[in-house]
Structure formats: C-alpha cells, structure tokens
Amino acid sequence: PSRESKAALGDPNVQESNSLCVLDVSASPRVITFIPTGLPFGRNTHGGSSPSGVAANGESIFVSNGHNDSITVVNAKTLKRERDIPIRLPGLEGYRGVLPIGLTIMGKRLLVAEAGINAVGVIEDGKVTGHIPAAWFPTRVAVHNDTIYVASAKGFGTGPNANLKESFQADLRKGAVTVFPFPSDLGAQTDRVLANNGFRPAQQTAGKLPEQLRNVVIIVKENRTYDELFGVGARFGVKVTPNHHEMARRWSSGANFYADSEVSVDGHHWLVGSYPDAWTESSLMASYGGQKNFRTSTTAPGRLLFAESNSSVHPEEQPENGTLWHHLERNKISFRNFGEGFELAGVDEGEGLKPTGARFQTNIPMPDPLFRNTSRTYAQYNNNIPDQYRASQLIAELKTMKELPRLIFVHLPNDHTAKPRPQDGYPTIASYVADNDYALGRIMEYLTRRPEWKQTAVFVTEDDAQGGVDSVDSHRTVLLVASPYARPGYLSRRHSSFPGMLKTAFRILRIPPLNLYDAVASDLSDSFSDKPDLKPFDLQPADLSVFDPARAKEPKDPLPSERMDDPNVLRRQHRK
Q1: Can you tell me the distance from the alpha carbon of 168 to that of 166, in angstroms, rounded to the nearest whole number?
Q2: Cys-Cys link to 434, which of 17, 335, 349, 547 (CB 3.0-4.6 A)?
Q3: Same domain, yes or no: 112 and 233
Q4: For 11-45, how does the pLDDT look when each residue is reduced to its tens digit (9 = 90+)?
C-alpha cells in the first residue's frame, strides 16, 4: 500500500556530512577526524556546503565550498579550521553561483576553478584579487613551471547538430584544456570575465512588464529542440502539434531560447533554480554512461546514491539559498506542483500505479515546501500514462480551487516519446508528441476561461533539447509565452535560457532573484505588451491518423515504462 514517510531520515549535519576527512595512511588507513567546511544546513542555509576541491601545502589546507562560494582554510599542523574566504562579485554579493571546485597553489597565490562563471579565481593574502577567463565549466586547475592548465568539462559548447552523423547531445560534449601563463593584466582579464557573464553593469536594466500580471504557470515538457517543432521541415510540425502552433500564432514564442542542460537530470535542476554542482554534473555522466547506476541488488556503498536518469534534486545538491520551492515559501508565494520533483532514484514505473504512476523503493528526503504543496493525484513521468490523463487530473484539481495559487508548475512529459503502441492509439513515436500537444491545448483552453486569466502568464518549455537536432545549437529549445498581455504572433530573438524564464516569473510574482544566474539573465519582457486580449484559447483538434485522444487509455500500465533518457534509444531516434 502507498504510504508517505518523513521520519528516520537522519541529521544533515552529522560529522561526515560536508566536511574534510583526515586519514592516517602511515599504516593501516584510519580516520583521524572530520573538519566541517562552509556553512551547515540550517534555517537560512537550505543546502550543505558541497566541499568540492582541496589543495594543501605545509601550512594550510584549502577546501572549496561549491554551494557557499567560499574557501575554507584549515591549519595543516593543528587540523583546526581557521577561516573562510568568500568569493563575491561586485554588486552581486548576495547571490551564489560562482561554484568553486578545483584548487591549486601557485606560490603565494591560490587558483580556483570557478565552474559557475567559466573562470579561474585568483586569491592572494586571503582575498580575491581577480578572475581569468576559462572555457565552459572549469573543474580542475594545475600549475607546472609557471604555466597554468585548466580543464573545463564542457569545453567550447556543442554548436548545431542538424547535419552531424553523430548528433546525440552526450556524444557532442567535449572537454577542453586551456594553457596560459599568469596574466600580466589581471585587471583587464577580470573585466572580461565580468563582461562575459553579464555582471557589468552588475544589474542589467530589465524591460517593463505589465503591472496587472500576478500569476504564473510554468509547463515543462521533455527533450525537444526548437527546429523539431518550428523549424523548416519540422519533424513534429503543425500536423503533430497544432496547439503549439496556434499558441505561437496567438501569443509569443522564442527563436533564441536555450536549455542550460544536456539531459533531464541537470535540466530539471535548472528549472527549479538548483544550478547543477560538481556532484550533479559528474554523477549524471557516470550514470548515463551505465557505470554508476542506482542498484538495490547489491550491498556496495553508494548503491542507492546515483540518480541514473532520475532528475529530482537531492539534499546534497540543494544550493545555499535553496530551490524554487524554498524561494516561493520564503517570500510567502502560494504554489502548487503537478508532477515535478518526484523523479527520484529507485522509482518503479510499472503496472497499476494509478494515480501517480510511480512507487519508490527508498525514502529520499525532498524539500519540505515541495512535499507539502504537491498534488497527490497527478501522474509524474511514466510514458504508459497518456498526457490526456494528466490534463484531466490537473483540471479536476484546479476546479476545486476558488482561487488559483500564484505559481503553478506542471510537468507534461509525453513528448519525450517511447515505443509505438498502436493498440493504445500511439501508432508512431510522433503520437506521443501529439498526445502532449492535445493535452497542452486542453490545459490552455481551461486556464484561459478562469477568472485569474486576466492576470496570468504561462511559460511553456522543455527540460532539455537532447531528443532531436537543431540548425542553430543542440541546446536550442521551445519557448511559448501565453498571456492576455503576450505580444500576438511575436517571435522573440532575445537570447535567453531557463534562468531568464525564472527571472521573468519572479518579477511577475514581485520577489527578488534566487541566485546569480537569474539575477543577471536576460528576461522575457520583450514578449509582453500593455494591450490585453482576453479572448480564450480554443482547443485545436488532433490529426486522428497521428493520435486519437479517444483511444488513449486510462493508466493501466500493461508494461513498465521505458527507462527515462536511455542514451541508446535517444541515439536511434536521432537517426529517424
């Protein structure tokens, strides 16, 4: 039977947690002590310090704290913690996101790989004196004969993948090592880093948003690129996605909007304001590669830790200021979540798991605000369950509400696609996308007839763009902006991504930024006007040769759901 448990989850501040472990290896290895680093979990720190890198000399041990943007200094002889060195950016001191990882000592300098801002930080005499540009997501830094070597996990990006034989996102990701001497113009290099990241001016002037807007709906789908729906010769064009195209005609869409992620794991982190840290980025690569997966069948340490393709935020990954859910509760914003945040490791998406589509084998802590404000009747990821069922459950629950929450988050996942199931109304993989489109149309038809519609903005996007190809960049994805105040038929060419969408949502909700990324992101204000059109949305009919909504069954789950983001399946789909 289904049951929920919040007990016996332990103390997040046990000595082994977020600490430097000191070992004696002179004989048989033994633990001498644990030294806490950074800030502990607490009322104002919703995540641990995430110690990510270490460097030492005869006097000091330096530990980078990825979530706190700081370096803990430990006396190498007494093993006593001495101080923390904060890494802050001018005008943005209150936000985290520098994400220090690797460390190395260069004479009297400490060099820090700053993965969050694509730079190497320079620390002298306990203070940050500058930053040097690096490639994308630097994780390690080393020095040899006065030459600096920086390893960046994401190199120089992927570029377009439309004409590549091997077009799958994970296969395109290449790291890079950059080599350079210590710069003589550190000040100029620092200015370049600040400019590259949009930190100068520290706060960009945001465009005007209609003051009437107060409510936000975010609808997240799965894996599609922009070109797959809206490009020339679109794979899932208007025949498959008539409601997407009608929304783009009625309201606004984006042609220069990108997923910050490569796959579902990091995508669903970005979408809830939890920028992926060193643990997330490294473990997802190991999991997707099949080397480190969640396994209940062994007794090996860590067997329950790796997330595989499951994408919800674990406690180890929560940033200092928390996730979207903490941010909303902290600012007293009412919200309701439908399907997001429950794709946890060890999920069973087998037969008969109505209504939620899943059963969990382990008790994994999740953000308490999310736990309390999540629908218990809405089905999460399980592509045996039609998106029609999800739309029905969502609408049924919203109908019970006299007033809608200020923010509604909806995961609508069936455009992820799966194997054809002709007997259930899915003759091709395009049928899943059509199912998703029809469900989206139903949701919009309902929302636009609610009293709150006159003050609502709806943002529709994907969790990543790994499922197909794109002529501009493999990260370019779908963005639809629907609202009475959305500019009709407007195609935005403003460069933005997930943090820009969250920034726009936060501005509508009248709350401050959550982290460094949404604080400086380009928002979506160009997609709005000051002239409302309150005409409701009319559902566009499905092409019955692609998908017949009447044949979409209730979620009986005759077979287990396919593994989410199976790389081999995704590669095959790219070739079709």
Answers
A1: 6
A2: 547
A3: no
A4: 888 999 999 999 999 989 999 999 999 999 888 88
